[in-house]
Design goal:
This protein is mostly beta strands. The protein has strands at about 65-70, 85, 105, 110-115, 115-120, 120-125, 130, 135-140, 150, 155-165, 170-175, 180, 185-190, 195-200, 205-215, 220-230, 240-245, 245-250, 265-270, 280-285, 290, 300-310, 320, 325, 345-350, 355-360, 365-375, 375-380, 385, 395-400, 400-405, 415-425, 425-435. It has four domains: about 1-130, Immunoglobulin-like (Sandwich); about 135-230, Immunoglobulin-like (Sandwich), CATH 2.60.40; about 240-325, Immunoglobulins (Immunoglobulin-like); about 345-435, Immunoglobulins (Immunoglobulin-like). Belongs to the immunoglobulin superfamily. MyBP family.
Length: about 450
């Protein structure tokens, strides 16, 4: 009987498993390591001598492989000793080689084994470079840094920006397209984040910072805008434009230094030259001119203007060179003009005359009331005849009350009496009937 083939050397540290094809005697092995192929090696490892084949038992075909063995070289590329990767024969045509060293070039060959012996080894044409699995780099910019990041001059800046990537990405920083100044900015990188540190920020640190992480040919970039602000300067100029009455008009120009941010408004103050104390007149004012009112007569005033931004109010203000003097001037009173009301009115009797009856020899009165402007002229008539200055009658007119007194009337004094009122606007009349009854003598009455 033929002798058994000598055993191959085994590596207890490295394990390899490959499945042998069931039908093909010479399968093509495929490495499982996920890495791009390296350049062909300059030196090839010498293949081991095949062992003498063993006779197949009766009833079995000697040309059908039953098992497959996967061997590999470890360490440097120039190694020439083949080491068994799997401790036991592996059925099937796939095997995963574990515990490899990153950076090595791995030669792989496969030997099929059956009861009849070993086959000639099948070797990969090129060595397989061992590399770590690559994860695309990704910068996870914090939400607070996605918008403009604002800090005041002198404050400390410590920004931590995490990222992903495997193997460890290469991190680089630029400011406005130029490399960072190591005297101003310190950058510390780890496997998971990058820290940008500025001990004492200045306005020249403002700008657009670009962070880039790179793994092999994959790269990710992100920008953050840093703005360093401070208090603004005072307005460039301030002048007194006009003074009238108790008012003064002031104008000014924007400051030359806005503190690296927009001007939010202005504060205007006034000071009486007698006291020299400053009082705020307007605050958060957005225009470049203002009118100051309610100034005191006889006083002189100076004005100053301060600038404001998001940091605060400027340390100094622009003061007007000229003073606004409120003069003591006499005030001429001009009475308001009113349209005179026309009170003219035609005569109108408010209380008319009433019919009356009287007895012969008993004095009686007729009464009525009238209004009108100008004061109407009153006339009395008897049976359409003007009474005039007849002493039998007494005519009285006082504040619109008109009366006619008939002294000791007789039967001839009966009739129709009329009162007539007349002025420039017109006239009015009112009448009544007077009946004079005779007296009854009881002695002469028939028995």
């Amino acid at each position: 009987m033929p002798g058994k083939p000598p055993p191959l050397k085994k590596s207890p540290v490295k394990k390899v498993v490959k499945k042998a094809p069931e039908s093909a005697p010479e399968p093509e092995p495929a490495p499982v390591v996920e890495a791009p192929p390296a350049e062909p090696a300059s030196l090839e490892a010498a293949p081991a001598e095949p062992a003498p084949a063993e006779a197949a038992p009766e009833g079995e075909h000697g040309d059908a492989p039953a098992m497959m063995t996967l061997t590999q070289t470890l360490g440097c590329f120039t190694a020439s000793e083949w080491v068994v990767a799997n401790e036991e024969l592996t059925p099937g045509n796939r095997h995963c080689i574990k515990n490899l060293t990153t950076g090595d070039l791995l030669h792989v060959r496969v030997v099929a084994v059956n009861p009849g012996g070993r086959s000639e080894p099948g070797t990969l044409a090129e060595p397989v470079p061992i590399r770590e699995v690559v994860d695309r780099p990704k910068i996870r910019m914090p939400r607070a840094l996605r918008a403009r990041y604002v800090k005041q001059v002198g404050e400390q800046i410590n920004l931590v920006i995490p990222f992903l990537g495997k193997p460890k990405p290469v991190v680089s920083w630029l400011k406005d397209g130029q490399p960072l100044d190591p005297k101003r900015v310190n950058v510390r990188n780890s496997d998971k984040d990058s820290i940008m540190f500025i001990r004492t920020s200045q306005r020249e640190d403002s700008g657009v910072y670009e962070m880039a992480v790179k793994v092999d040919s994959f790269e990710d970039k992100a920008n953050l805008t840093l703005q360093i602000v401070e208090l603004p300067g005072p307005p460039a100029t301030a002048k007194l434009v006009d003074v009238w009455g108790f008012n003064a008009a002031v104008e000014w120009t924007p400051p030359k230094d806005n503190g690296n941010t927009q001007i939010a408004g202005y504060t205007i103050q006034k000071a009486d030259r007698k006291t020299g104390e400053w009082f705020t007149v307007l605050e958060n004012y957005h225009r470049l001119n203002a009118t100051i009112s309610d100034l005191i007569m006889g006083n002189s005033y100076n004005f100053r203007v301060f600038s404001q931004n998001q940091v605060g109010t400027s340390e100094t203000g622009a003061v007007t060179k000229e003073a606004a003097t409120i003069l003591k001037t006499g005030i001429v009173y001009k009475p308001p003009e009113y349209k005179e009301h026309d009170f003219s009115e035609a005569p109108k009797f408010t209380t008319p005359l009433s019919d009356r009856a009287t007895t012969v020899g008993y004095t009686t009165k007729l009464l009525c009331s009238v209004r009108g402007f100008p004061k109407p002229k009153i006339e009395w008539l008897k049976n359409q005849m003007v009474i005039g200055e007849d002493p039998k009658f007494r005519q009285i007119s006082n504040q619109g009350i008109c009366s006619l007194e008939i002294r000791k009337p007789c039967s001839f004094d009966g009739g129709v009496y009329t009162c007539r009122a007349k002025n420039t606007q017109g006239e009015a009349i009112v009448s009544c009937k007077l009946e004079v009854k005779p007296t009854i003598d009881r002695d002469k009455q028939p028995q």
